[in-house]
Amino acid sequence: MKLKNNSYKKELKLVSQLIKNEIVDEKIIQQLYDYIFKSSGKQLRPLLSLIASSPDKRKTRKRLKIAAIIELLHTATLVHDDVVDESPTRRGIDTINKNWTNSHGVLIGDFIYSKAFMLMIGLSDMEILDELSKATNDISKGELIQLGLIGKKDVSIHDLIKVSYFKTGRLFEASAKCGAILAKKDNKTYINNLSNFSKYLGIAFQIKDDMLDYSLNAKQLGKPTLQDLSEGKITYPFYFALKNSNIKDKKFLLSILGSKKHYKNSKIIEKIELLGGIKQTEELLKSYIAKSVSFAKKIDNEQIREEMLNLTQFSYNRTK
């Protein structure tokens, strides 16, 4: 991911260092913690916070701390997700639940959450603490809503958007909002534009994730393909394909939803594509990218505006 201002890359390294500097007396906790943070992901959420808070460089220590909190919260949700989904790999390496046990995954996820909240208290800012705690609650809400949809055949587009917002868009939104509050607490327009930009970018990011799940390149993705389908989760490509299908195709699609039978991935992906699932998902993706861009263009600060527009291009074009 290319950034207009390379100073953000340096700051992200400092954020990673802040997270990795955690020293724990208990060997097993240190072992699990180091394993999780030995590789960094895209770090989009802490990046959004750093960009949003950049107008006030006098608060660099707090800026880095907020970014670290956000990355900790995000990582904890991923560790818990892997347990719920029984995922064997994440970012190309074995998950905690694969290498150790589900119990290890749940408990180290809880440990990371607690570290995030300890850092939050140190900020001494009730408005930021309120936003981050609400976002954490909403992420859990999204996971529970999605669990409730598993196996349902009458999932609506509204259901899918709601899950995308709570699971992904909500932390994107909180990341930028907290950064904006830190830098310009009294500038409601600045805070609202960045919050809305990031909310729609997060939803777009999840839509793209669902598209990439219907890909044959598991190695590049760093996780198994068609995982949502095998878990019985209807996501955008499947939803649109099902909507466009005739009786015969609908019967086939519903028979593979959550099925433990072995089907050729290439055959399933071909069917989803033929029924317009990928194309219509891409159209939906474009519409949320456009919503995000519309708020980015309202940001007065040119440097921040350009960075955010750059992130929309990355989110649309990414291949993993």
Comma- or semicolon-separated keywords:
single chain; 320 residues; mainly alpha; two-stranded antiparallel sheet; 16 helices; 1% strand; globular
H/E order of the elements? HHHHEEHHHHHHHHHHHH
- Weakly predicted, low-confidence segments: none
Total beta-strand segments: 2
- Terminal CA distance reads 11 Å
CATH homologous superfamily identity: Farnesyl Diphosphate Synthase
Overall morphology? globular
Largest sheet: 2 strands, antiparallel
The CATH architecture designation is Orthogonal Bundle
The CATH class assignment is Mainly Alpha
Rg of Cα set:
20 Å
User: Mean pLDDT, nearest integer?
Assistant: 91
Kindly estimate the percentage of residues that lie in beta strands according to DSSP. under 5%
- Find the CATH topology: Farnesyl Diphosphate Synthase
